[in-house]
Design a protein that fits this description.
By secondary structure, the protein is of the alpha/beta class. The chain has helices at residues 11-22, 36-43, 57-66, 80-89, 102-113, 121-137; strands spanning 2-7, 28-33, 50-53, 71-76, 94-97. The chain has one domain: Rossmann fold. Helix content is 48%, strand content 18%.
Length: 143
């Protein structure tokens, strides 16, 4: 059984996300908290397989220190092109927009729980564009 901690404010997002995950064909134990501080306190006594939280880059290090095997998925309304890549490079295992459809949310949760990284097609293309620009900037020849 997979264990998931959802730490989102406002709690309506936690409730909705919990309902979506509960309908997935995946045995899970889901806990919710309203704040990151509450999540950190809970992580003092129990580790989870997955933490789903809003954009809190300063939370990644303390969470991984308390529970080294935990996977972290950022679920936020913050702009993907601005924040996703930096958060993934900082240690998040997934980044999903709150505007994502139910099917994408389910896929993202399954992907991260399976030990893989998750990012939307938009973020993936942005990452590839950045890599391509770096490669071209360092190359003197013609492509």
């Amino acid at each position: 059984m997979k264990t998931i901690l959802i730490a989102l404010d406002p709690s309506i997002f936690s409730y909705g996300l919990k309902q979506i995950i509960a309908t997935m064909p995946l045995p899970t134990d889901i806990e919710t908290t309203d704040t990151c501080d509450d999540a950190l306190t809970l992580l003092d006594t129990r580790c989870f397989d997955l933490l789903i939280t809003d954009l809190h880059p300063d939370l990644l290090g303390p969470v991984k220190a308390k529970c080294p095997g935990i996977r972290i998925m950022i679920y936020t309304a913050a702009d993907e092109k601005t924040f996703a890549i930096d958060n993934l490079l900082a240690g998040a295992d997934g980044y999903l927009s709150k505007s994502a459809k139910k099917e994408e949310m389910e896929y993202a949760v399954r992907t991260v729980l399976n030990g893989e990284k998750y990012m939307s097609a938009t973020v993936r293309q942005e990452m590839l564009d950045q890599l391509w620009q770096k490669k071209r900037a360092g190359h003197k020849g013609i492509y």
